[in-house]
Amino acid sequence: MEERRIIHEITPLMGKDVLYIADRRKKEFTYPIHNHEVFELNFVEHAAGVKRIVGDSTEVIGEYDLVLITSPDLEHVWEQNTCVSEEIREVTVQFDFHIGDDTLFARTPFLSIRKMMNEARKGLSFPISAILKVYPMLDSLSSIKEGFYAVTQFLTILYELSKCEGARPLASSSYAKIAVEDDSRRILKVKNYISKNYRDEIRLNTVADIAGMSPSAFSRFFKLHTGRSLTDYIIDIRLGSASRLLVDTSRSISEISFECGFNNLSNFNRIFKKKKNCSPTEFRENYRKTRIIV
């Protein structure tokens, strides 16, 4: 199988720049799948039917779409798909903020933005309620001539988004290669164990022991804390890893399924199709179509 690679986009941001704002009106999406060093907030309107790919997440968007991506390795693309609109608008804001412990974003007023930026390493999709709240600011951002005021307005957009409820991650942690994090030490120990051993059979009794709880108490605690059952969590880790191998390697589907802890190929195909709405083969072929040789 022909190996293909993702375009690594060179950002228009120059050394001392903070923001690059592109406000476009267009009839179709043509740019291929790509990634880039800088962070990006991308807003799309009047583009129902467009397919949005972020890592191993593939979704068809509605009239409005707003996504924040803060990982240099996370590939993404908006594809034309079934969209027939001739009045598409796309506002792309690329920005270069450092959010380390010695920056302004480690100070109290900016902590919610910093938390959101960390979550957006997997790509973060915002609900329509959040989009409507920041729409007037997004709508006028490209018309602000004074750089300082553009930056302060953009920071306000980020702050409002960081306070909204309902934002959801897109790519899986294992696909995006994001380190396991959690507020609970018990859950973190279990997640670390799973991330190291997901290729093997993982028993409830084993992880309950790691957490120092009975199996029944642990099951309730884990679901309350993560929103997923232990079985669903393990499956998601395995599928994320499998998706990454489907995209990055030419290994056979069968080889990948066993490599990622599925006990037989038919079981892998069934679960993959249920979770991803396509077969592993279709997933691989769709990605190949969106990549170009560089």
Describe this structure in words.
With 294 residues, the chain is of the alpha+beta class. 43% of the residues lie in helices and 17% in strands. The protein has helices at residues 111-119, 128-141, 147-163, 173-176, 185-197, 204-211, 215-226, 230-248, 253-259, 265-276, 280-290, and strands at 7-8, 19-26, 34-35, 39-45, 51-54, 57-60, 64-69, 76-79, 88-95, 124-125, 168-169. Strands 2-9-4-7-10-11 form a 6-stranded antiparallel β-sheet. Helix 1 packs across helix 3 (147-163), helix 2 runs antiparallel to helix 3 (147-163) and helix 5 (185-197) runs antiparallel to helix 6 (204-211). The radius of gyration is 20 Å and the shape is globular. The chain starts with 6 loop residues before the first strand and ends with a helix. The relative contact order is 0.13.
Task: State the main characteristics.
294 residues, three-stranded antiparallel β-sheet, six-stranded antiparallel β-sheet, 11 helices, alpha+beta
Q: What would a concise description of this structure say?
A:
This protein is an alpha+beta fold. The protein contains 11 helices and 11 strands. It has helices at residues 111-119, 128-141, 147-163, 173-176, 185-197, 204-211, 215-226, 230-248, 253-259, 265-276, 280-290; strands at residues 7-8, 19-26, 34-35, 39-45, 51-54, 57-60, 64-69, 76-79, 88-95, 124-125, 168-169.
What is this structure's SSE topology?
Layout: E1 7-8, E2 19-26, E3 34-35, E4 39-45, E5 51-54, E6 57-60, E7 64-69, E8 76-79, E9 88-95, H1 111-119, E10 124-125, H2 128-141, H3 147-163, E11 168-169, H4 173-176, H5 185-197, H6 204-211, H7 215-226, H8 230-248, H9 253-259, H10 265-276, H11 280-290
Parallel strand pairs: 1-3
Antiparallel strand pairs: 2-9, 4-7, 4-9, 5-6, 5-8, 7-10, 10-11
Helix pairs in contact: 1-3, 2-3, 5-6, 6-7
